[in-house]
């Protein structure tokens, strides 16, 4: 569904629909998409809006255009999932952008007393309750990640109305008017708990990647804390670096002899 009164442009909302259809398997690798005219009629939007969304997804490598044939879902890959750091997207959204056919299993959703650690991340008091969601993301090969999401109770009531096995959480919040802007993320190596090892179908001594992220709305107000546990043999991060040369004198001053 598109929301004409949302602060998010219609072409961005339409992009999210395409991405989610890829994520839930409705669109598969190499599938031919509907024409611009058909999409425009289906969603009651202009062809210009459809064209802009499709062009963005082609640039992102999610879709490919074939001259004289139409627009297709790009070929996906199995095995190791690679994330190029830099885009603020959620776990499900990120994997969908990689053209990975995934399924999301909702393990838990509950309202509970906030822990000291989560309270610190969300800058709230220990007296408040939070809404906790635990999901496991799997592809055709097997489990990829466990995602723990935490929001304050009032925001949790909004998420609780949605299908958390299909809907993009960031999109849900944005459609309710929350203007997500930035996030602080830390990535480290870790060891899974016995519970996590079982969900990920790995040995209890196997290494995992642990991503902790605090997402902010405008004004640097924290709205969500996520802790994601990835199988280290299924997932990796990549980062493009640009060199900014330092003066030789400043380097020499900081090198011990």
UniProtKB/TrEMBL annotation:
<feature type="domain" description="HTH gntR-type">
    <location>
        <begin position="8"/>
        <end position="76"/>
    </location>
</feature>
<dbReference type="Pfam" id="PF07702">
    <property type="entry name" value="UTRA"/>
</dbReference>
<dbReference type="InterPro" id="IPR028978">
    <property type="entry name" value="Chorismate_lyase_/UTRA_dom_sf"/>
</dbReference>
<dbReference type="InterPro" id="IPR011663">
    <property type="entry name" value="UTRA"/>
</dbReference>
<keyword id="KW-0804">Transcription</keyword>
<protein>
    <submittedName>
        <fullName>GntR family transcriptional regulator</fullName>
    </submittedName>
</protein>
<dbReference type="Pfam" id="PF00392">
    <property type="entry name" value="GntR"/>
</dbReference>
<keyword id="KW-0805">Transcription regulation</keyword>
<dbReference type="InterPro" id="IPR000524">
    <property type="entry name" value="Tscrpt_reg_HTH_GntR"/>
</dbReference>
<dbReference type="InterPro" id="IPR036390">
    <property type="entry name" value="WH_DNA-bd_sf"/>
</dbReference>
<keyword id="KW-0238">DNA-binding</keyword>
<dbReference type="InterPro" id="IPR036388">
    <property type="entry name" value="WH-like_DNA-bd_sf"/>
</dbReference>
<dbReference type="InterPro" id="IPR050679">
    <property type="entry name" value="Bact_HTH_transcr_reg"/>
</dbReference>
């Amino acid at each position: 569904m598109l929301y004409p009164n949302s602060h998010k442009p219609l072409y961005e909302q339409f992009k999210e629909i395409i991405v989610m259809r890829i994520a839930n398997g409705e669109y598969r690798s190499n599938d031919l998409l509907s024409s611009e005219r058909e999409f425009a009629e289906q969603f009651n939007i202009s062809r210009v809006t459809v064209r802009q969304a499709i062009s963005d997804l082609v640039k992102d490598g999610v879709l490919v255009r074939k001259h004289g044939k139409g627009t297709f879902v790009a070929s996906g890959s199995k095995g190791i999932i690679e994330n190029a750091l830099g885009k603020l997207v959620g776990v499900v959204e990120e994997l969908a952008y990689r053209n990975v056919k995934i399924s999301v299993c909702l393990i838990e959703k509950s309202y509970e007393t906030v822990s000291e650690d989560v309270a610190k991340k969300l800058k709230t008091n220990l007296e408040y309750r939070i809404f906790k969601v635990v999901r496991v993301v799997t592809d055709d090969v097997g489990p990829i990640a466990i995602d723990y999401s935490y929001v304050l109770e009032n925001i949790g009531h909004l998420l609780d109305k949605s299908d958390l096995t299909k809907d993009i959480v960031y999109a849900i919040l944005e459609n309710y008017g929350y203007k997500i802007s930035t996030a602080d993320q830390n990535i480290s190596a870790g060891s899974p708990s016995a519970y996590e090892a079982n969900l990920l179908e790995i040995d209890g001594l196997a290494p995992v990647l642990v991503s902790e992220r605090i997402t902010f709305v405008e004004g640097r107000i924290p709205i969500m804390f996520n802790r994601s546990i990835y199988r280290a043999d299924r997932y990796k991060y990549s980062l493009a670096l640009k060199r900014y040369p330092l003066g030789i004198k400043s380097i020499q001053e900081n090198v011990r002899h």
